[in-house]
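From the thread on structure requests for the teaching lab: each student submitted one protein with a one-line request. Submission from student K.M.:

"Model Rosmarinate synthase from Dorcoceras hygrometricum, tokens only."
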Amino acid sequence: MEDSSSNVFQLEVKQGQPTLVPPADETTKGLYFLSNLDQNIAVLVRTIYCFKSEEKGNESAAEVIKEALSKILVHYYPYAGRLTISPEMKLAVDCTSEGALFVEAEADCDLEELGDITKPDPETLKKLVYEIPGARNILEIPPLVAQVTKFKCGGFVLGLCMNHCMLDGIGAMEFVNSWGEIARGLPLKSPPFMDRTILKSRDPPKPEFEHHEFVDIKDISNTDELYSQGMQYKTFCFDSEKLQRIKSSALEDQTLSHCTTFEALSAFVWRARTEALNLNPNQQTKLLFAVDIRPRFDPPLPDTYFGNAIVLTNSMSNAGDIVQNQLSFTVKLVQEAVKLVTESYVRSAIDYFEVTRDRPSLTATLLITTWSKLSFHTTDFGWGEPLLSGPVVLPEKEVILFLSHGKERKDINVLLGLPPPAMKTFEQLVQI
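Reply posted by the TA:
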């Protein structure tokens, strides 16, 4: 476990002029439909991939990646367009072919000096992802911005800023890995399935479920005052032994016959964070997490679906019940939230947004984002797999990230931010 705020290393990066990379061939023009599952997550996701090859320096890295980008954009042409508002007052992509934004940069040090980037230090890492000066909203930021930063040691970092409304994590990895295939001179293995209208709302819309993910909870615990003390970010590593102990603890009172690692860890973290924030026992609290809906449809959605094939499911409880009950109580809440996600629930969520245009409320909420199953480590542009890859920053204070860790990828790093007094308590509570 490490505290990112204790990092005194100062990274200096010299960025060149940004250029536009249009698709290598003619592509479809006009408005591209984004589904209701895309509308609510129009947040910027910044990730970095660190590469170093003993045989191959970084001289040609920017050129190879840039050329492959123009080729992959032929298949993923909306990434060469710009976000806009459709006549229905929703987000859409204007497929203009003007191109993704690309920046070359140089760092004044060796890659090793970055340290372990799985413990994000936003001040340092954000220098590796280009930010558009003066952009006031997401419509002024291209859906894809790439920066290649060369380091003195011959290594380089690819920093990406991608808008989540374009893709979920599975789709984003598919895109980046396909881009890598093209950079290595290989044919595209799995072209994207581009038709998002398969997730269009029904006419007329028929929401059939309550969709508590959108419920606005009243903050009776005065957490604003606690958060006004600032945020501290830390990463906690749960190795396979710790994860096994958490699962055993969830099953020991024999209320449950089984649970997955995700269910046990989510419940464990939700409980510890609820206690660390010292929420009023009568405070309603909500857990949100994304579920991949591809296999939950009949027939299943295409594996290569280009877009967000995830839905937020939820669980709600009083803080007192979570803290005072056995861990099995909270695990059961998580399991019920997983079970909730069926094809009819997803269709209902799509229709619910059509009718209400609500956004999920994050008051007294924990939103868990799981990247531990994503294949970040398989990205290869010709320099081998990345030494390290991960996020630059957490999008909201309520978000916790699960990342896989270690050679076997069996360990899970849990990254979160909390006000310093709460972080101190959380640290003690997760010792297991």
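TA comment: The first helix runs from residue 36 to 39. The mean pLDDT is 93.
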